[in-house]
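User: Here's a structure from my thesis project, written as structure tokens. My advisor, Dr. K., wants to see whether a designed sequence matches the one we expressed. Can you design one independently, without my sequence as a hint?
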């Protein structure tokens, strides 16, 4: 289940890149995708738990989480718009470092010197990934910056939602957060959604169905079932594999290129993850 989950998450980079380069504008893809995923989670939660109730004191926190997720999706989808799926995936390899930094800034964790060194090493790796990007420099810088925004906001979302995970199931949290996110994305992307000349290609819609069902819905069921069986520490080992796999899928499925400099950056980021291993707030994987 863990391996299947990580592969689905990794494929999301290539699937999303394919869709926004084969007829769908970024927000015209992201907004309907989240709306359908939110509907699926509402139905799933009602079937499994018979209730969507949350305490009023938690409503504001869920709204803030949704706001952060909106920024995450804008960064993710426009990062892919300007940069390759492989490059964005390599930048996402800094996620454990960002999560640790945000946990430290919010007082949840107290990082040691080893983690500080790992953070520096990780961002040096990002520098190499950016430096090794091919194509138009301005577009690549936009893509890399937006990928960093997506990574940082996903880390912030993970830390923010952690306390809610002790009171609610991931399905109930996802029902609210994804629904609010979908509403905001629809409002922000209304112009693109209305103006979109949606393609008729079956391959595009099959890929869109995968992007909704696989990385957003099925992975949650598999991920949290697996955590219940093997524990979060064991599961977290697999999480770090997804960014490497995503870069590989970008090369194999989309014929993208990774330069030697970018590979070196990916190695530095991987080394930083190993060096900076420490007790972290469990990061819920409820969307991507």
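Assistant: Designed independently from the structure alone:
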């Amino acid at each position: 289940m863990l391996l299947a989950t990580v592969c689905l998450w990794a494929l999301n980079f290539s699937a999303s890149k394919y869709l926004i380069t084969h007829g769908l504008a970024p927000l015209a893809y992201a907004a309907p995708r989240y709306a359908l995923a939110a509907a699926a989670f509402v139905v799933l939660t009602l079937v499994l738990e018979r209730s969507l109730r949350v305490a009023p004191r938690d409503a504001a926190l869920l709204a803030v989480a949704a706001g952060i997720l909106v920024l995450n999706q804008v960064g993710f989808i426009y990062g892919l718009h300007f940069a390759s799926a492989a490059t964005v995936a390599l930048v996402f390899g800094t996620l454990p470092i960002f999560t640790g930094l945000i946990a430290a800034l919010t007082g949840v964790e107290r990082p040691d010197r080893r983690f500080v060194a790992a953070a520096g090493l990780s961002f040096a790796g990002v520098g190499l990934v950016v430096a090794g990007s091919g194509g138009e420099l301005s577009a690549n810088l936009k893509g890399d910056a937006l990928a960093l925004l997506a990574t940082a906001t996903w880390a912030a979302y993970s830390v923010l939602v952690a306390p809610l995970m002790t009171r609610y199931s991931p399905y109930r949290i996802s029902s609210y957060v994804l629904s609010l996110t979908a509403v905001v994305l629809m409002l922000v992307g209304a112009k693109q959604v209305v103006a979109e000349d949606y393609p008729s290609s079956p391959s595009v819609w099959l890929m869109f169905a995968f992007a909704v069902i696989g990385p957003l819905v099925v992975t949650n069921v598999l991920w949290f079932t697996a955590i219940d069986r093997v524990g979060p520490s064991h599961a977290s080992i697999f999480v770090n594999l997804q960014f490497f796999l995503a870069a590989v899928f970008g090369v194999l499925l989309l014929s993208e290129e990774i330069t030697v400099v970018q590979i070196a950056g990916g190695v530095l980021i991987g080394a930083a993850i190993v060096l900076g291993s420490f007790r972290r707030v469990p990061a819920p994987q409820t969307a991507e």
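When you compare it with your expressed construct, this may help: The mean pLDDT is 85.
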